[in-house]
Amino acid sequence: MNLVIGITGSIGSGKSTIAKMFAEKGFALQDADKVVHEIYEQDKKTINKINKEFSGCVKDGKVDRNKLKQIIGNNPESKKILEQIVHPEVAKKRDEFIEKNKKCVLDVPLLFEAGVDEFCDVIITTYCPDDIRRKRVLKRGYNADIFEKLNGSQMPQLNKIERSDIVIDTSKSIIITKQEINEILYYLEGDFS
C-alpha cells in the first residue's frame, strides 16, 4: 500500500499529536517544522543564502531563529524572500521522504498555503474550538498576543476543513480520538491496499 497522508490544522488544534498517533500505527512521520529547523542548523548552502539576505541572523554557523523572526517581524515582506530560499529545500526533503516510505504522514501547518496538498492521497485537518486552542497554546508558554498573531497568519480552520478529506475533532477525549484513527485506518487500508 502506497499512502501519503497530509495532516494540517490551526495552531493548538492537536495536529502534531494526531500525526504521532499515525506514526504509532506504523506510518513514517515527517514534521515540516522540524525539517526547517534542521535546515537552519545543518544546510550550509541555505544558511549562507539566508545570511546574505538577512544579515546578522546567523550565529555559530546556524540560523538564529529568534533573530530571524525579529527581522521578519519588522519587515513582513521579507518573509516571501525567506520562503523562496527555504521552501525548495523543504520540498526536496519531502520528495525524498515520500519516495523512501510507502506509508507516510506529512505534518505540515501550512499544508494548503505551501501547496503540499497536491502530494497527498488523503488530507486530514485537526479541529477544535478557538477557546480550547488558545488554552493549549498558552499552556505551552506562549502569550495571548502571540497566539492571536500566529492564528491570524494561518488559513482559517473552516477553509482547511472545506478542503480536507477527513476532519478530526480533537476536543474529545484521547480515547475517542484513538478509536477514530483506528476507524480511519480501517477505511484507508481498504481503499489503498
In short:
The protein has 193 residues and is α/β, with parallel strands linked by helices. The protein has helices at 15-24, 32-42, 44-53, 65-74, 78-100, 130-139, 144-152, 157-162, 174-191; strands spanning 3-9, 28-31, 58-59, 62-63, 103-107, 122-127, 166-169.
What's the layout of helices and strands?
Layout: E1 3-9, H1 15-24, E2 28-31, H2 32-42, H3 44-53, E3 58-59, E4 62-63, H4 65-74, H5 78-100, E5 103-107, E6 122-127, H6 130-139, H7 144-152, H8 157-162, E7 166-169, H9 174-191
Parallel strand pairs: 1-5, 1-6, 2-5, 6-7
Antiparallel strand pairs: 3-4
Helix pairs in contact: 2-5, 3-5
Overall tally of domains = 1
Biggest sheet features: 5 strands, parallel
**How many E-type strands?**
7
Element string (H = helix, E = strand): EHEHHEEHHEEHHHEH
Looking at the structure, the CATH topology is: Rossmann fold
Proper CATH architecture = 3-Layer(aba) Sandwich
What gap, in angstroms, lies between the N and C termini? 5 Å
